[in-house]
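FORM 7B: Structural annotation worksheet

SECTION A. Query
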Amino acid sequence: MTGNEKARAGRPLSVYIHYPYCVRKCNYCDFLSGPMASPQAGQLYMDALLKEIAFEGKRSLLQGKRRQVDTVFFGGGTPSLMEPSLAEKILDTLSAYYDILPDAEITMECNPGTADEQKLSALRSVGIGRLSVGVQSFDDAMLRLLGRIHTAADAKNIIKSARSAGFDNVSLDLISALPGQDFASWERTLKEAVQLSPEHISAYSLIIEEGTVFSEWDKEGILPPLPGDDEDRRMYYFTGEYLEKNGYHRYEISNYARDGYPSRHNTGYWTGHDYAGFGAGASSYYRTGMHSAFRTRNPETDEYIRIWSRDPESEPERETEILGKQDMMAEFMFLGLRMTQGVSRKEFAGSFGEELEKVYGEVIELHKKQGLLKEQGGRVRLTRRGTDLANYVMADFLP
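SECTION B. Predicted structure
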């Protein structure tokens, strides 16, 4: 085993499992997801997923030491639609080739209306320890507009069921700046969320993505008006202030957690953690050396099933991107700046053998003068105004 392979084998790995099926496609959603065509299609997909895990797992073992896994994330789609026995089979297959650490964070995305207390208890018993619940809003009119299958009451009930099933790590997803939404509506949603006492809250501002129902409605002029920029920012600032007062600390642009409960899986993405993505459209990222890495992306659902139905003996076709030192430095910066702790000068130098000032000094100084970046304790962070213009700032670190 080469030195690079030994280093890679010694680093913990994050695992993402993509389940592309949902009850129906939401009006704002541009994820790789949709209703299952038939039970047979679902079975073919699960067969393909398990084959991919085994294929990659065997290849990993050939490199020597079994890799440790410190987080597993079931995303989608709506993975809570799957039977607990399937989740168990996926985790068992992973365990055949990887060492899932005893304290691994194992998360499943769960939508209200797709699981009751009995099912949640079964998921808990097979190893799911954290739920990420797609609430989005506690306003029934907003939920209907979004195309969600649940009501506000359903969302509250699934949180209660999760607690009864033994879950002590629950996250809620919320979306602000919705069509026709005013500040009072968002304020009510946020307060309802806090009353449920989740350990973690993700609060995103809506972006109208091309190819969604919302995008088509917008082109046709029938989408209710979006809140203006000032109202959007008012919602964002209120979110941070209100959640902070209630014990939730912002650790990333859109993520808030009580002490000890930041998402370890998502933090891995933002800090350059190796990750293996299994399933349709899933991405993987592996460092191959101190200054080199590669990223792959699986094909979409039908092509994914077709590839794995023929049991490939060699590397299946995937989109592949080779990353060099300049690419990795850029990602270190624009992902690191998403975190409230910002980017450490010491960690940058340790990772790349170069001083941050030498590589990005001019860019940092420019944005400090513009009031978008600040520096404290050897770390470079976004200011409050910089957070508003985060995409503008981060673009300047791209190669």
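SECTION C. Observations
Residues 365 and 373 are 8 Å apart (CA to CA). Residues 3-269 form a domain with the pyruvate-formate lyase- activating enzyme fold (CATH 3.80.30.20).

SECTION D. Sign-off
Analyst initials: ____
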